[in-house]
């Protein structure tokens, strides 16, 4: 983890309940914080900013331009414990 560039670290979860996401995401933040020498708050801020940049760069292109429906990417969803800058 320490070797991963700071701007490449993102957090995600497959949990489908907010209670599970909060607990597990906080544990992930603590692990990353320890490996990087950051505070948990700094880890949340950095990973949130990285996720925003990632999703801003991501685009969805339908396989067929003849399709009548268009699909747009989902907005970035943040865990409730993240603090907006």
SSE blueprint:
Layout: H1 18-36, H2 40-57
Helix pairs in contact: 1-2
Can you walk me through this structure?
- The protein has 85 residues and is mostly helical.
- The chain has a domain at 16-57.
- It has 2 helices and no strands.
- The protein has helices at 18-36, 40-57.
- The protein is flat and about 30 Å long.
Summary tags:
disordered C terminus; 2 helices; single chain; 85 residues; mainly alpha; 44% helix
Order of helices and strands: HH
Determine the mean pLDDT: 77
Cα Rg: 16 Å
Biggest β-sheet: count, sense, barrel? none
**Shape by Cα distribution:** flat
What portion of residues belong to β-strands?
under 5%
How many helices? The count is 2
Unreliable runs? 65-85
Question: How many strands in all?
Answer: 0
Structural class: mainly alpha
The level of helicity is 40-55%
Distance between the termini: 25 Å
